[in-house]
Amino acid sequence: MPEWMSIRDTKHKIDNLSAEEVTSSYLDTIEKSSINAFTNINKKAIEDAKYYDKNQSDLPLAGVPISIKDNISTKGIPTTCSSRMLENYIPPFNAHVIEKLYEAGAIIIGKTNMDEFAMGGSTETCCGGTTFNPWDTSRVPGGSSGGSAAALAAGESPISLGSDTGGSVRSPASYCGVVAMKPTYGTISRYGLISYSNSLEQIGPMATCVEDIAHIMDVIAGYDNRDSTSIKRDINYSDAIINDSEGMKIGVPTELISDGINPKVEKIVWDAIHKMEDLGAIWKEVSLPTTKYALPAYYILAMSDASSNLARFDGTRYGLRVEGNNWHVMASKTRAQGFGDEVKRRILLGTYALSAGYHDKYYVKALKVRTLVKNDFDRAFNDVDVLMGPTMADIAFKVGEKIEDPLSIYMTDINNVPVNLAGVPSMSIPCGFADKMPVGLQIIGNTFDESSILRCAYTFEQNTNHHRKRPDGVN
Amino acid sequence: MSYSNTDGIMIGLEIHVQLNRLKTKMFCGCSTQYHSSPPNTHVCPVCLGLPGALPVINQKAVESAMKVGLALNCEIVEQTQFHRKNYYYPDLPKGYQVSQFDYPIVSNGKVAIEGEDGELVIRIRRAHMEEDPGKLIHMGSIDKSKGTLIDYNRSGMALLEIVTEPDIRSPKEARRFLDKLRNILEYLDVFDSDLEGAMRVDANISLQGGDRTEIKNISSHKGAERALLYEIMRQKNLLRRGEIVTMETRHFDEARGVTTSMRSKEEEHDYRYFPEPDLVPLRVKDRTEKLLQELPELPDAKKERLISQYSISDMHAKALVSNLKIANFYEEVASEVNPKVAATWIADVLKGELNYRDLTIDACKVEDIVQLVTMIMENKITDRSAVEVIRTLLDSGGNCMEIVEKKGLVKVEDNVVEQAVDDVLGENKNAINDYLNGKEQSLNFLVGQVMKKTRGRADPMIVRDIIANRIK
Amino acid sequence: MITEEDVERISWLARIEIDSSKSKEYAEQLNSILDYFQQLEELDTSDIEPTYHVDDLVNVLRSDDIKPSFTQEEALENCENKKDGYFKVPGIM
Fold it and tell me: In chain C, which residue's Cα lies nearest the Cα of A323?
């Protein structure tokens, strides 16, 4: 039976069996699975595993399988962004994080499904079909890193990398009952991450326990001179794995527990905050007054960036090509057929928002709102160490329920996007169940203060049992 | 001399200069030395626009741009950033060009050129950094192409786009400005004009009473002059017939020497500029002092120094400094022989012979010209022989002494000339009579006969004097 | 308000062919999202500076040192339409 394994568990198993057997059992689980978490399997995974069996090492992830969201470039392994546009694209280079993983001895088992070009919150807008939530396959896994979260929940991969532009690792972690972190902007090199919205997104580690998040961060975080927005800063994340939150100050932003919240989710989140209080933390209500406006500002910026980032997909050098009688027609046809509806909508709106006459009204306005959002966080962190609230206002919704109404999906990101606008780090950890579906607790830290988040999260995890529950059929 | 500009011609230029003396491209580590390489061999994820690739700014490109700005008397901006200029074209691998928008790296400069009626100051509006697109090869003509081939080796090369105010009043002034600019850029060692595509020019031009048109795709200074001459004629004709000159972009057809309208749906743009989110701002004004100290002596300063240091004429100095290598060559020669004579021979003769053969000064050795000038000074060869030596050096190589000896160009002794004159006068009584009867050409004939007898080694002016004295 | 003509203009700017029978549908969809964006108008941001980058990095530069490039095969390996080492596309006009 598939099982949840931490990095520690996995290494133990490799010691007892072999990396080859561990990898092959994951590949087997993936093969038999019906949740559709993967877009492609790394055909060389077994070969890589054999290599580590022959060359036993004490590398931090020696022989440990990892799945990778399909917008992170992997040399020799298709990287499709779950888009028809890139169905046959095989990058000739590795993303920075992939180099780091290989250096740490990890084995890439495959690429995980996602909303096309990371534009969505349900992992339904994929050219290879929807990913299903392992807790209830009639529900979505969240998104856009839904394939990664579902793969973890279904025991198809012990650890994973996602990316988070506006909640894309936290939303699926919350819906699938796993752990994910979006680090401070600039912490992990974006080199090789296929851009959706450059100044908002970060690659984020995903796992089934808090400690693994710290371990992955220790491997993939750090300065990279190929990313001009990369920050020079040495942090040991594992050092923050401390089961003690005595005296930590928690802020609870009233705006994150808003009118639209599912009352069951609200209760679970308050229970979690009270649990932290029992564990010695102190909490108080704080305000992030601009939260309401963060969502439209976020979408304007993300769509504007996207309209430019995705311009390179014109059928000329790689990816899909649909012939036309001249180059411009070819490009227009290629893009019409290569992109799905949501991607097209965002490109069109982004093009509009940047076009002559509307630039200031939308794009510049959104950048100013971003300043206000950032000021909100700066003010809040004057008084508290971390902020806590629900990651998502509700449990995972049904497949197909919102797909016809784009705005209703946009709204689900409301608690997540302020974090990306401000560039601060944030994590989602399991904190309970409503209607048998997982609920995520969001812990937000100040810029570069991942340590406080990890410490809070680890204390909570070690003193509760929510992370020990598994979907049916998973050990 | 005054220039009235009766048509009210106003020309502004936009010059794209490839900073091809850098080792690498603007935003990636690909080598700039692609000019004789197969297509698509100087590319990487960044300049090929592969998804996930990110740009990083070449520091030397920024410093080169600043140096150009300083040489053009510009101000350096306090803070700037790169923007994305969004448009679709197959040579643009990302669907946008990383360029600069509202804060160019340098602005508000000026350059003095020799105008139609004396010195003319051309104001520089701005110069900004951007990346070069790839190169398209149309199979067939651009409008009836069967297909297009793309080479991205050029993609991502650092470009500096220099924009002038519309201070230029004639095609000739435009050309002189371009020559001057090229000269300055070469002195700065940021640019090698001999490489293909090193400098491309767009020209804005308007006449009194008409709108402005923009001419694109001009690839040489001569082309700029021709395109502008054609466009002035075209606009004049329209205005004369009472028609209007509309604002539009026109394409210069180098082969036919005409400009044609480019209006089509593909040419409509809304560039949707926004700050490049993958790059952070630049605050580099504090490097100005350091760069100023690194600036080399520029053409105008060099010209003044040559005049005062070597007492050469303004005209010679100008000719010498208009090419840095020639100026340096001259100074080496001038350190060993009479600088004034050297200037005459290098500026008046050697430079012309090089241009005629499309050669650079690299084809010539300092020691040969030193020897040549020495022989001229010592009256060992005639001016005419000296020219022949230079031509032979450039055409067939060798060294100066060898050529002089092999061709027997050492000037003949005076008594040999005297003897030849005696012989010729003895043999050509009729010609003497003709000359005495006022037929001037007869003298030329007699000189020619003497030259023939001395196999050209006599000085014809001296021969002429001798004959004229004898038969007076 | 985005009109059907706007949809056609934007889709051309974005090089996404849209069947003219669908312009109306697109216009409606886009307008409903734009309506939602309109709420930003409620905020007075006249004295607020825009934030392009959350960090305050400046002058991130690299030295002018050559790094290896792709081989021609690597450069072209994801492209089916090529000729003599070039990418090949239809004519421009």
Answer: C90
